[in-house]
Sequence to fold (634 residues):
Amino acid sequence: METFDSLTYEKEVYKPSKETVKNSYVDNYDRLYEYSIKENEKFWDEIAKQLNWFKHYDKVLDASDPPFYKWFTGGKTNIVYNALDRHVTTFRKNKLALIWEGEDGCERVYTYFSLYKEVNKFANVLKSFGVKKGDTVTIYLPNIPEIAISMLACAKIGAIHSVVYAGFSAFALRDRISDAQSKLLITADGAYRGGKVIELKKIADEALTRTPIVQTVIVVKRTGKDVAIDTSRDFYYDELMKLPIANAYLKTEEMDSEDPLFILYTSGTTGKPKGILHVHGGYSVGTYITSKYVFNINDNDTYWCAADPGWITGHSYIIYGPLINGATTVMVEGSPYYPYPDRWWKIVEKHGVNIFYTSPTAIRGIMRFGENWPNRHNLSSLKILGSVGEPINPEVWRWYHKHIGKERCPIMDTWWQTESGMFLITPVPSLPLKPGSCGKPFFGIDADIFDESGKSVEAGKGGYLVIKKPWPAMMRTIYKDEDRYKKTYFSKFNDVYLAGDAAKRDKDGYFYVMGRIDDVIKVSGYRLGTAEIESAIITHEAVAESAVIGKPHDIKGNSIKAFVVLKPNIEKSDTLMDDIRSNVGKTLGPIAKPDEIEFVDSLPKTRSGKIMRRVLKARDIGIDEGDISTIEED
Ligand code: WT7
Fold:
């Protein structure tokens, strides 16, 4: 792998101010880190004790059957017990838990007590439809408070939620419902994005024609537009919430620490998305302490993570982590540029946001419009900034630091994954920062970079990013596919977690993530599998075969290029190209639409018939194709 000796920016260091260090929960990274690794279980035990347990656990870590680790065994808890129930008996009862801004300018707020009651009501509704502990419920909702209420209501009664991002289309939704075998789906009439309406119910109906398993659909009214209703199956959320059954009190189900909390599907190397499974106990502990130490959330802070709840970032850092900390969390629907590219800064000013967390792709998108847009607003409330999803280019980091953070706010570049549940490598506010680096491992996280043979590489050299000790919020398995879990993450280096990223470390121990090593493409921070996009492309009747690659892109990080082989006697045309693109949008989702399509007569393959994407990529950017002796071009 490439060496990075030529990089000079690692020498650029931003020291925290005295005030930042003084106000930090963690004022000395090295000391706590050393302790957390040496006394790993003791460290996690001390953190876990800060949460509420119906019954205290017997054991911190059960590592008797690696890589199937169990945490806090014998304990009884529920994430809702920590995220809501424990706050409503304290001074936080009437504190704002959630502030929501709709794209159309409407605003809704919930106190801890009102959110608690909404969740109880909806949990009672779900129960009345027969949803029980261990059942799965699929949630296909936009960025509205009901997504948080639905997730928390499922968790409350011990049902497993499976949220499907509202930007995904019928094909993706259908696959995820079938894999999870959900009998109940929660969706909305529509969603707003960039001034347009996305007809979610219509997409859901299309997915459901091929998933007879779903017996009940609960529809949240968001746009208020008329949608088709099948009276034997579909019910409006607001009508259900008015029924006597929607009682505002319900006892929270006492769950084992290791009982499943949610499944979240993510893309991998093959076309079939992986159902990443997380559990109540360890995930509560991990999201709690990372939110607290990395964002330094205090009771008088307003915290805003501008992600979508449909991805892990939203699960862990819009909903669960902040609520467990008793914070006020902000949720915003719609696009950052609509109606104007200062929408976000307007919201920061309006709510006096103190902690702001977003992605490099959003910052790059906003940077295009220049600093006059943020400069028009009073951003003095901001104390800490965050970044997630892909590497943040140093020049983007500096812009964010200067024009948003006014050279006052440290930037937490948090590296983690759907699988990890919580931050794994990240700075804390008291750690000096280097633009382009995601800092150092979080407490208790034993991160390393291996070469092909499983040896730790020296500073400056690239290698495989691995984690050598289990951590509480790690996924427990791939839903119904333990073999794939073992094979994907723990087989290359025996029982060591393989993250799927290439990385290097500098001589000060700072990590730099270089990108994915598998067939996963990060497009605007969204994770997509090449095989998944290819399957969507070939659903078009004119297409025989296709191969997809990622190409560097200034704003999106990567763009999607598809090579397409048409069926015999089909004419190549621009109209056909557009049609193939929009078909991908309709089946998989708009984010998966190829930016570029090239019609080719054949695809380079190995003798065993595997498409050589590496060769296509090399040809596309005009570099040496490497060893292609095994290619057969038929
Ligand atoms: C992949 C995981 C974790 C929430 C959002 C993405 C990339 C994530 C960073 C970062 C460099 C990053 C990695 C990782 N990634 N954060 N701070 N710096 N790369 O979750 O969809 O599961 O994707 O996102 O490639 O493996 P995800």
